[in-house]
Amino acid sequence: MLILLPNELGYPRLGLSASRKKLGKAIYRNKAKRRARELFRKNKQSLGSYDIIMILKFPIITMKWKDLENSYREVLKTINKNI
After folding, report:
1. Alpha-carbon torsion 40, 43, 35, 72, what sign?
2. What is the pTM (predicted TM-score) of this model?
């Protein structure tokens, strides 16, 4: 789940929520956060001046990287169209 909020800083920021209830043990939470940060880092030039809050769930761990990246980009395209 993504929550997008405008900011006045001129660059995007990322906030992560990785709960034990949704992801399980610390090893899975850490892996999910690493993957989310990398997705954000690779695609932040297309975000503009927004704060993104990602609420992480278990599929982020089990998906193949290419599929995860494609799905993230599709969500960003949809968000950019609606703004």
Report:
1. positive
2. 0.85
